[in-house]
Amino acid sequence: MILSTTPTIEGYTIREYKGVVTGETIIGANIVKDFFAGIRDIVGGRSASYEHVLREAKNTSMREMEERAKAMGANAVVGIDIDYETIGSNGSILMVATSGTAVVI
């Protein structure tokens, strides 16, 4: 399965459009990560624990979108968009939504 943010894939012709596919992941951050991220905010630096959660959520959402494309008979997804949002009363929940067009190349 080829996954691309571009509308076409160089060297390939899109033979069939299967439709829009999406993947959604909602993941919460725990209090320990929040505490250490708060310290990082004060002293500076990157928060490896949050970066890991962010990557995990993105990978899960992409994998879900890919599975849906395969179920439609596609072998590629083009025009992928990845959207990151925080939700919940204090913004402690991360939502990653991916969308693209399932195609046959």
A few lines on this structure:
35% of the residues lie in helices and 37% in strands.
Can you describe what's shown?
The protein is of the alpha+beta class and 105 residues long. It has two helices and four strands; from the N terminus they run E-E-H-H-E-E. It has helices at 31-43, 48-71; strands spanning 2-3, 16-28, 76-87, 93-104. Strands 1-3-4-2 form a four-stranded mixed sheet. The longest helix is centred in the middle third of the chain and has 24 residues, at 48-71. The chain is elongated, with a radius of gyration of 17 Å. The termini are close together. The relative contact order is 0.33.
Please give a handful of descriptors for the protein shown.
105 residues; alpha+beta; 4-stranded mixed sheet; 2 helices; 4 strands
Alpha plus pi helix count: 2
Rg from alpha-carbon coordinates: 17 Å
- Gross morphology is elongated
* Helix share, percent: 25-40%
The termini sit apart by: 10 Å
Mean pLDDT across the residues is 85
Q: DSSP strand (E) fraction?
A: 35-45%
Order of strands in the sheet with the most strands?
Answer: 1-3-4-2
**Biggest sheet architecture:** 4 strands, mixed
Helix/strand-derived category reads alpha+beta
DSSP strand count: 4
- Poorly predicted ranges: none
| H and E string | EEHHEE
Question: Can you lay out the helices and strands and say which pair or pack?
Answer:
Blueprint: E1 2-3, E2 16-28, H1 31-43, H2 48-71, E3 76-87, E4 93-104
Parallel strand pairs: 1-3
Antiparallel strand pairs: 2-4, 3-4
